[in-house]
Please model this.
Amino acid sequence: MIRQTLRTTNITMFTEESTSESDAAALCIDEEVGKQILSYSYSNVPKSTVRNRSEIHYGSARLRISLRSEKILEGEYWTDRKSTGHMKLTYYNKTKIERFPLNQES
Model:
């Protein structure tokens, strides 16, 4: 979920096992090449039941914004656990959520 106001941008990601919250975020626009980038740092807090295999960690992401036929964010992330990866996020809907949709636990 991305929430943006005039002064702030906040990114929250929910999975079945954890929640990530942005600490800082910036939208960068390079008008000469038409590239829009969302960059942010985050903290990830896994549920206590999985922390034996998934520690609390911190990371950053740099995602290209595509608003053409589909609304997509795509790019790379890296963490202080020395892990890296690729993310491709597709627009779902405007509904705001407070937890992972399939998870009925608090």
In short: The first strand starts at residue 2 and ends at 4. The chain has a mean pLDDT of 84.
